[in-house]
């Protein structure tokens, strides 16, 4: 009964945040310094923004490793070469993105489909229109105590799950389940992401935590923790990274949406194949991480750096069912109608991209 009450409260909080809107406070990653270029001020001072062929898009892009490649591409000017500039708001939370789309403040964003799907189902005027550069749940389970050698040693321990629901908590539960540990056998703590989660590990507040890179690699390099497993090895069919567009843009500016989506995968491929070393140096500075550690972090996740546009229907439907199983989604919620592959398929065809998971 206690778990069900928590689930209902979490669902209610999501609905309230969509209707009432969220504050514009930035997370710890965003508070260091802007990771993007091409904001309203810089675009307005650049004569190229006056060109008929240049478009400016209202966006809210993720920070940290989740948004690193995209933000590097913006700062590098790869989008500008394609005639695209951004009036960008630094990403703070999935709930805030939904609120801004509902208020008509942004047209495009990226983030977690486990939040966006129920939001759209419950009336947010938007649809998922493509995949992020990776969408397989690049989370790592890291332990801080040397006595914890493997996941099975976590019984009776305190574990950080990032949030009270969603993909990172689900990943923890699945990893524990496959090692014979139930939810009642551990203490789960919503300890945030990025630096916040890392701080709870280094301080000993949690015995282990689910976390993004570069912090998993950093924990091993600094001797503050060691990796127990990669989430996507335990839950490979979970869908974690998507691009969302407002209905206003889909219906009234489809040509701009198509230009952006095609450019998104084009510049990400360029970064991976032509600017990789420069990207590593940039990301290391952005996240205050030694270059060798950053390179190790990125290369350890290259197997899921897909750059493939078309939303996988099997993944998105499986994800919805997982969320229902844990009581984080109402049983009536469906993925149908929350996404479209019309624009993504055109981008894939134009760029000659094929589904990496079909090989």
Describe this structure in words.
With 359 residues, the chain is α/β, with parallel strands linked by helices. 43% of the residues lie in helices and 13% in strands. The protein contains 15 helices and 10 strands. A 5-stranded mixed sheet has the order 2-1-3-10-4, sandwiched between helices. The chain has a 5-stranded mixed sheet with strand order 7-6-8-5-9, with helices on both faces. Helix 6 (167-177) links the parallel strand 6 (158-160) and strand 7 (187-189). Helix 3 packs across helix 11. The chain is globular and about 60 Å long. Residues 1-50 have low confidence and may be disordered.
State the gist of this model:
The protein is an alpha/beta fold and 359 residues long. 43% of the residues lie in helices and 13% in strands.
Q: What spatial order of strands do you see in the largest sheet?
A: 2-1-3-10-4
Annotation field: number of helices = 15
Structural class: alpha/beta
What is the residue-averaged pLDDT? 87
Largest sheet: 5 strands, mixed
Instruction: Report the radius of gyration as a whole number of Å.
Output: 20 Å
Global geometry? globular
- Secondary structure: number of strands: 10
Low-pLDDT regions? 1-50
**SSE string:** HHEHEHEHEEEHEHEHEHEHHHHHH
Helix content, binned percent: 40-55%
Strand content: 5-15%
CA-CA gap between termini: 44 Å
Structural features:
359 residues, alpha/beta, five-stranded mixed sheet, 15 helices, 10 strands, 43% helix, globular, disordered N terminus
